[in-house]
Write a structure and sequence with these properties.
Blueprint: E1 6-13, E2 24-38, H1 44-62, H2 72-80, E3 83-87, H3 97-109, H4 122-140, H5 146-153, E4 157-161, E5 164-167, E6 179-184, H6 191-201, H7 205-228, H8 231-248, H9 258-267, E7 271-274, E8 282-287, H10 290-296, E9 302-307
Antiparallel strand pairs: 1-2, 2-3, 2-4, 4-5, 6-8, 6-9, 7-8
Helix pairs in contact: 1-2, 3-4, 3-5, 4-5, 7-8, 8-9
Organism: Polaribacter aquimarinus
Protein name: Mevalonate kinase
InterPro entries: GHMP_kinase_C_sf (IPR036554), Ribosomal_Su5_D2-typ_SF (IPR020568), Ribsml_uS5_D2-typ_fold_subgr (IPR014721)
Length: 308
């Protein structure tokens, strides 16, 4: 048994904002992927994954929802036979490792599933997002459902608001100097504690104002610029966003990277922002000159995502 491949995702813009209903833009990232496989000889990672799938099965079996029905009998049988999720997607890195797993389970075991091939109306997309939100909550405590949706459809997705998501056309990559890249913090980040910090901060009126007046409006401007290929304006807005995040989301930025973050803003060699919930994993970088950024960040591992 070998299931279809599901890819990692990168939330280019919208981390935390989408919890509070501002815009977001997510793209598939094909450098990392996962698939369901089966083996009678489980050890190490595959054994751990199989045990995790059993816990996930119990969670799905306990769900009280009319949104989706799973073939739980088949799922349990396959887990007992040694099914596991074989994945190259790093966990705790903000690139959707649990999202790809959720997408693969839905794809194989949901009855009357919404398929990628049918006409994806807004209602169907929202339905899928809700189903995935419920499923992925097993891993994070609270999930928007966006990561699995992105992985399942393997399309860029624009989140206009909680109830309005649509596939997005993004400009095709150019062979220019500019780039979006990943910077490896070489630390694992956990989503739940980071989201809890954010939710506690949201109790503060000043922070709430900053989110709606500064953070959300700058994020929305970045998305508009990116979708319309306004590169010059994009970098101005990404620089503003980088400053806002450094000032207001310090706990989500690993301590060792506060100076690196500041340095990018000061030199204009690159601008950093959170990739997912932060706290570790990848940090997302934008630069008008990738060579210059590589030079400035030569002590770190960088991975190219998109070229301008």
């Amino acid at each position: 048994m070998k299931g279809p491949l599901f890819y990692a995702k990168i939330l280019l813009f919208g981390e935390y904002g989408i919890i509070k209903d501002s815009k977001g833009l997510a793209i598939p990232f094909n450098a990392y992927r996962g698939a369901l496989k089966s083996s009678s000889e489980l050890s190490g990672k595959s054994k751990f994954s199989n045990e995790n799938l059993l816990k996930f099965y119990k969670y799905l079996a306990s769900l009280k929802t009319d949104l989706v029905v799973f073939d739980l009998e088949q799922l349990k049988e396959d887990i007992d036979r040694g099914m596991y999720f074989d994945s190259s997607i790093p966990q705790g890195y903000g690139v959707g490792s649990s999202g790809a797993l959720v997408a693969s389970i839905y794809d194989k075991y949901a009855n009357d599933k919404i398929t990628v091939l049918e006409n994806l109306t807004r209602d169907k997309l929202l339905n899928l997002k809700q189903i995935f939100s419920i499923m992925e909550s097993f891993f994070h405590g609270k999930s928007s459902g966006l990561d699995p949706l992105n992985s399942y459809l393997s399309l860029p997705i624009l989140i206009n608001s909680k109830d309005n998501v649509e596939p997005a056309g993004i400009p095709s990559q150019k062979q220019g100097k500019g780039a979006v890249f990943l910077l490896d913090s070489e630390q694992i980040g956990e989503t739940e504690p980071m989201v809890n910090i954010f939710m506690n901060k949201m109790k503060n009126e000043g922070f709430r104002k900053m989110i709606s007046n500064e953070f959300a409006t700058t994020t929305d401007a970045c998305i508009e610029d990116f979708l319309h290929g306004n590169v010059k304006s994009l970098f101005g807005n990404v620089k503003s966003l980088s400053k806002i995040v450094l000032k207001n989301f310090k706990p989500m930025i690993p301590d060792a990277f506060h100076k690196v973050w500041e340095n990018g803003i000061k030199t204009n060699d690159y601008y950093l922002k959170l990739c997912g919930s932060g706290g570790g994993g990848y940090i997302l970088g934008f630069t008008e000159d990738f060579e210059k950024a590589q030079n400035s960040l030569k002590n770190y591992k960088l991975e190219l995502v998109y070229r301008f």
